[in-house]
Amino acid sequence: MKRIDFPKLRTILLDAILKNQSILTLVERAHECIGLPIICFDVFFRVVAYSFPRPFYYSHWENLVANGYAPDDVVVSNDYLSYQQMMYALGKSQIFDWGTSEGFPQACGPVMSDGQLIGYAGMMVEGTDPDDCVAANNMLSQAISVLMRKREEGGMRSAEPRGGFSADKLLIKDGISPEQAEYFAQTFPKPYIFAVLSPKDANVLKLQYVRRALCGAENATIGCLSGENYLCLLFYGADPSVCFPLLQTSLEFIASRHALTGGVSDYFTCPLEIPNRRMQAMLTLSVGARCATAGRISFFRECYSSIISYCAIERFGPSACILTEILALAREDELSGVGYLETLESYLGHFHRHSAVAAVMGLHKNTIINRMRKIGEILGQDVDDGKFADKMLAGINLYRMLERDGVLPAKRGTA
User: Fold this and answer.
1) Taking 80 as the threshold, does the pLDDT of residue 278 lie above it?
2) What is the average pLDDT across 298-306?
């Protein structure tokens, strides 16, 4: 089994750094030294440099080089982001010989700069000692990091309006000064919509990749990662009359493709509101997931009543949020099995129309009329009174949430 000449490789890498050579030159010289195929690409799967005979026997690297990058459908279908997450989580090179790499063992690892992931480097093993390959790839990654830093800083610089602050970083700050808000508004026209996306698998590389796909002047969007679980996005110049349907379609596609969930704020016009709208989007994300809304993306307008209800439950506790009238109907249902609470819920939700409730519940209209009369007797209230009906509808909504979350207090003994 071949061994790598580390003193020679170290000299080549150090020389490349001192002379500020291109990454391509560094990779080519390293390839001449160790005799193994090498590739380097950035976090968006764009090829930075490579050195191996072509056409190459490993189709994934060959296609990367042929296109200059990996298309989105290739990244998704081959689960590239999961491989990169493994490299990022370990923080150094490792041998891959499974999945798309099965039968083609290679040492691959992250290229880091100031604690941030900026790319990946890999080399085929090809009969060489695997431990040597891992050590050599780590050395190569460190050298590439030095040479990539300026390149990445130029290509990934955050949008910076006047005032010397990073506009996308404002998306995750808890406070914005009036001066920052003024500079922001001059660069990014109102109105705005705030969105938060989150992966189910806590894959920070996935969020970085999605950020690249969504952000840019062509999409009128800026974005910033908040930790490893959230991608914060601000859509500017968002015409409310047309933006929400288009935004929903776009985000639903991205969310479905990358197994994300998301929450979207209402639109707003003042940059000073960004922290509050971030919270609005976060609440929408949380409540939308708990309520299992239709799509992966939840909108504040659609979740408004549920958000208010959950906030009340969190503030006052489950027991304090259930009306005694609701408990009385629930207790009567438990004893009789009639379904008074369901009937009242349908009645209030169908604008007090007996025939509509009967059709939905598959019962005779007279049955609904009799049930509603009985409900009035149980509650001692006129269920057609507007204020009482509104209170009951809100109370039923809270009760259903607690029922869905499995935190209802005991039904018996309270009326």
Assistant:
1) yes
2) 87
Q: C-alpha dihedral over 77, 80, 86, 91, to 10 degrees?
A: -170
What pLDDT, on a 0 to 100 scale, did the predictor assign at position 250? Answer: 87
Whether 147 and 43 share a structural domain:
yes
| Cα–Cα nearest to 233, from 210, 259, 256 | 210
Smallest Cα–Cα separation from 226: which of 182, 183, 195, 180? 195
Nearest to 57 by CA among 121, 107, 106: 106
**By residue range, what is the domain housing residue 190?**
180-314
What pLDDT, on the 0 to 100 scale, is given for residue 365?
93
Query: Per the domain annotation, does 240 fall within a domain?
Result: yes
Crossing angle for the helix pair 386-405 and 274-291, to the nearest 10 degrees: 70
75-114 per-position pLDDT tens digit: 989 989 888 888 888 889 999 999 999 999 999 999 988 7
Number of domains the chain is built from: 3
- Domain CATH number, residue 59: 3.30.450.40
- Any domain includes 251: yes
Q: What is the pairing mode between strands 260-264 and 297-299?
A: parallel
